[in-house]
């Protein structure tokens, strides 16, 4: 074998190793490039490819016989031996494609209420999973379904999905609060799905019209500064009437005391809620204009059960029973777990991080520790990295030399993506780690 050929094979092998060791830490620029390459490689290049795809889709859709006949006619050459266009074949192809499109378009029998419960969510990170989307939209009410479109033959999404709530108040409040917010370093678009023959503005007004006559005592309050809490909001809104409860949406199940910048409030009287919406929507609080609108009672129940930042004025009413029932179902912590929570003033604990949701059980490989060390090492000197595979999930512990490096890493990596999974980063008690207690109650 010649030296030139041997060198070429070595280079190819090295390149394969580099590709196999490519970091799983997500970056949006890489995803956009990969999507363009994949789209270029999968797009049909010839007319025959289009016809083949058309025929295969017809078979997958189990179309009626007349449609299958159209597809068969569509396989005839468009140009005859004389070079003239075969009009019948061209028409057959057009009819077949039009029929296929009609199969994928919903019929017009849907009520306005059904349409108002549905959302379109666009500009999603391509490796985002359904669970991550659900966690963002769940605070607004009960979710009926999520339809996340995936690339053919891949586990990556197409960058958009459709979501349906159980009620229109949940859907409309989600549109008003979440449209334009950041998810996985992208500004997501949240609106109403519409057909090509309708005005997009008409689709946007569907939700507003649907909730106009729906009575509710609950309101959402968005664009709230993170320094403020439920007690602040209660004191500000109390002039409009007696408040039953106020709660801020928790940033995550593991950070129940940190809110997402919005919350919900329930008044005792419906008229008080409507008055608060009328006078407080657009009200500037601490330099930021508030967004206030109608909300679903389900949003109150869900968030009261999961958030620690709340004010509840106990009184008569069936809602208290609903809240208690929801808390018993959603709260995974025992009372004894409170003793295990670290002291936030202990600087030693500020040097230790716990990274979760990097990989699932059974997916730990030899490269995981090096990838974590390499990424975390960008923020400070690391003493050690430990990986522990528990019964239902994997935890990676990173011990920094100082709290400054740990703080920078926590801020940069929390919410980042690793191999398609959204990473959660939290401080962990160094004392518990040294005692090999890897399951602190609130983590």
Keywords for this entry:
Alpha-Beta Plaits, 5-stranded antiparallel sheet, flat, 19 strands, alpha+beta, single chain
Description:
This protein has helices at 3-20, 28-42, 47-60, 65-74, 87-104, 112-116, 130-137, 168-178, 200-211, 230-237, 270-280, 297-306, 319-330, 368-376, 403-413, 430-434, and strands spanning 118-122, 143-150, 157-165, 182-183, 186-187, 189-191, 218-222, 243-252, 255-267, 284-285, 288-289, 291-294, 310-312, 352-356, 382-389, 394-400, 417-418, 421-422, 424-427. By secondary structure, the chain is α+β, with helices and mostly antiparallel strands. The protein has a five-stranded antiparallel β-sheet with strand order 12-7-9-8-13, sandwiched between helices. A hairpin with a 4-residue loop joins strand 15 and strand 16 (394-400). The longest helix is centred in the N-terminal third of the chain and has 18 residues, at 3-20. The N and C termini lie far apart (58 Å).
């Amino acid at each position: 074998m010649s030296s030139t050929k041997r060198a070429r094979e070595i280079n190819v092998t090295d390149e394969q190793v580099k590709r196999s060791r490519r970091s799983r830490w997500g970056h949006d620029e890489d995803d956009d490039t990969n999507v363009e390459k994949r789209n270029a490689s999968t797009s049909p290049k010839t007319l025959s490819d289009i016809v083949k795809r058309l025929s295969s889709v017809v078979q997958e859709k189990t179309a009626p016989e007349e449609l299958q006949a159209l597809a068969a006619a569509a396989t005839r050459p468009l140009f005859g031996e004389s070079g003239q266009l075969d009009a019948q074949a061209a028409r057959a192809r057009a009819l077949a494609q039009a029929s296929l499109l009609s199969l994928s378009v919903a019929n017009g029998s849907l009520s306005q209420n059904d349409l108002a419960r549905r959302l379109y969510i666009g500009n999603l990170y391509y490796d985002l999973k359904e669970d991550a989307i659900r966690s963002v939209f769940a605070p607004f009410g009960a979710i009926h379904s999520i339809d996340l479109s995936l690339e053919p033959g891949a586990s990556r999404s197409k960058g958009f999905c459709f979501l349906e709530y159980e009620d229109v108040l949940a859907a409309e409040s989600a549109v008003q609060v979440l449209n334009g917010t950041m998810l996985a370093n992208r500004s997501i678009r949240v609106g109403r799905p519409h057909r090509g023959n309708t005005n997009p503005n008409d689709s946007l007004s569907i939700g507003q019209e649907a909730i106009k006559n729906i009575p509710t005592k609950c309101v959402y309050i968005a664009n709230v500064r993170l320094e403020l809490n439920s007690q602040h909001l209660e004191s500000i809104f109390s002039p409009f009437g007696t408040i039953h409860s106020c709660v801020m949406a928790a940033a995550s199940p593991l950070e129940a005391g940190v809110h997402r910048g919005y919350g919900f409030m329930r008044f005792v009287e419906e008229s008080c809620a409507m008055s608060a919406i009328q006078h407080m929507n657009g009200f500037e609080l601490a330099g930021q204009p508030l967004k206030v609108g109608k909300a679903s009672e389900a949003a109150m129940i869900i968030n009261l059960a999961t958030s620690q930042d709340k004010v509840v004025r106990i009184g008569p009413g069936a809602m208290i029973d609903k809240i208690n029932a929801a808390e018993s179902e959603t709260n995974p912590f025992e009372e004894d777990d409170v003793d295990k929570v670290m002291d936030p003033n202990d600087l030693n604990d500020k040097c230790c991080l716990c990274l979760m949701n990097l990989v699932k059980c059974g997916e730990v490989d030899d490269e995981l520790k090096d990838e974590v060390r390499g990424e975390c090492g960008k923020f400070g000197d690391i003493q050690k990295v430990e990986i522990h595979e528990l019964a239902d999930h994997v935890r990676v512990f990173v011990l920094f030399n100082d709290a400054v490096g740990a703080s920078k890493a926590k801020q940069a990596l929390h919410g980042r993506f690793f191999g398609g999974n959204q990473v959660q980063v939290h401080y962990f008690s160094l004392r518990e780690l040294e005692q090999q207690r890897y399951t602190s109650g609130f983590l």
